[in-house]
Amino acid sequence: MDIILIPGLWLDGTSWDEVVPALRQAGHRTHSLTLPGMESKDADRSQITLRDHVGAVVQAIDSVSPSGGEIVLVGHSGGGAIAHAAADARPDKITRVVYVDSWPLGEGGAINPYFPAENGEVPLPDWSLFDEEDLIDLGDESRAAFRARAIPSPAGVARGQQHLTDDRRYDVPATVIACEFPSAHLKKWMSQGEPNLLELSKLRDVEYVDLPTGHWPQFTRPGDLAQAILHSITPA
């Protein structure tokens, strides 16, 4: 099947490089997206919006399989919100959405309106602004490598409002790969009515896979992340 890999904030398509080989070895076709405005650190991203990123994923869906076929969307972090909106736009074309340390973002929500923005873009913040759970297994060397490769994200993507129109998105099967918090915590928070998880609670077919690490498993546990993705898309 075709696996479209959607990066989170500050990352381009190369962030999946250590995950892709195992997916291809298993016989799948992979498409690691670099979203608009994320082509380089020098790219002009001041006018890029969340809808632009969603549109790029929808275009990839249509290009990958114009006449149908099995398509899986894999979204990391903020890429999960984008994957969900793309599934909303093409619910009949998506076999499964895999949320990597993320979950679906509902109508009117924003990926992250809190990180500081400068000149229409959101640079990778200081590590002190992240929760300790985000940084599990991300040592000093890995943090330095991440910061060296990080590309500022468009403020219009991080802060833009999610817009959804097709309730068939709730029928698209989903997998949540839980990293910094175990899936048992997510289920508990949902049962308590956590607003950020309301959209997740509406999905009708969800499975959970625990992958204990920090927020960037493609860097800290790429092989295990690949296996978790494969497990989620392989028929029992």
UniProtKB/TrEMBL annotation:
Query: Pfam families from the xrefs?
Result: Abhydrolase_6 (PF12697)
Q: Specify whether Lipid metabolism is a keyword of the entry.
A: no
Signal peptide as annotated in the record: none
List each copy of the AB hydrolase-1 domain by range.
3-228
Keyword Disulfide bond applies = no
Q: Name one GO molecular function term.
A: hydrolase activity
Q: Which UniProt keywords apply?
A: Hydrolase
Alphabetized Gene3D superfamilies for the sequence: alpha/beta hydrolase
UniProt-recorded name of the protein? Alpha/beta fold hydrolase
What lineage, starting at the top, does this entry show?
A: Bacteria, Bacillati, Actinomycetota, Actinomycetes, Streptosporangiales
